[in-house]
Amino acid sequence: MKTVLRIVAGLALLLLVVVVGGYLWASRATASTLARTIDTHAVDFPIPWPDVGPGGELGDSAAASVDPRQAALERGAHLVRARYPCADCHGENLGGGVMMDAMPVAQAFGPNLTLGEGGVTRDYGPSDWDRAVRHGVGTDGRPLAMPAVEFRSMSDQELADIVTYIRSLPPVDNTVMPFRTGPIGKMLVATGAFGFSADALPHFDDHAAMPPEAGPTVEFGAHLAATCAGCHHTHYAGGSFPGEPGWPPSSNLTPAGAIGGWSLEEFRRVMREGVRPDGTEVAVPMTYILGLGQAMSDMELEAIYLFLQSLPATETPD
């Protein structure tokens, strides 16, 4: 009996050593991952964006019938409320929100973007905005929890319009807790199972100055649908993705998925009401996107639909 107890005690001690050793290794690896610096290019663009002529050329602000800043504000408001899910992470007032609160995995809170106390963008210039939004890299060069892979295709004009709009918002005094990883999260980061956008993006390629011409076209739809890549991947065939425990795999958006048999009106209903043609409802986190769908125009939703229908039929990866 004593021999059995000694064996059990020895195995328990060995397990404890393995667990503690693994945790210490994961903690050091995670700290190293979060502390490293990533080089990016430095860009510059005007904020607010100048007025634009019908052919895309810069116009004459003095002769414009619409104040360029007011036009940028209106475009920026639409971008934030209809095309880019800023509020999902940064809160409705953009003064800070919850990205993930799932310990022992991780806690990630969208920082305060306003000009109030605790606002992280108060001293941002164009290049700082570019690094954070389109590269997932902070002003100190360290990787952010920002899902920049969804915003890589954002043009200079769109980013300038969004900045103009954010700077016009009422200041919110709120200091947001920094990104934290729990024991499981440390292991995921250490093993590479939880990645950062900064590691998946090019950092020295040029960005488009302006978005494609708006219209019910595949090209414009591809631009709008780029924000879907964070969950549905760049192949749009869906599958598993980093998220809170319990979130289901993302759906296949190519014609190989159920969407291949949807009509335009059925697609619009899914995007605005969250109800599929078979009567089932979409699940979290797709429910967070319904506000964007409701704010989009019929033309914008048609463009996305045309783009998704144009994709090659791709089976969801295992």
UniProtKB/TrEMBL annotation:
Domain Cytochrome c: 71-170, 187-312
InterPro entries xrefs: Cyt_c-like_dom, Cyt_c-like_dom_sf, Cytochrome_c-type_DH
SUPFAM superfamilies in the record: Cytochrome c
Keywords: Heme, Iron, Metal-binding
Recorded superkingdom: Bacteria
Pfam family, one: Cytochrome_CBB3
Protein name from the UniProt record: C-type cytochrome
Organism per entry: Gaopeijia maritima
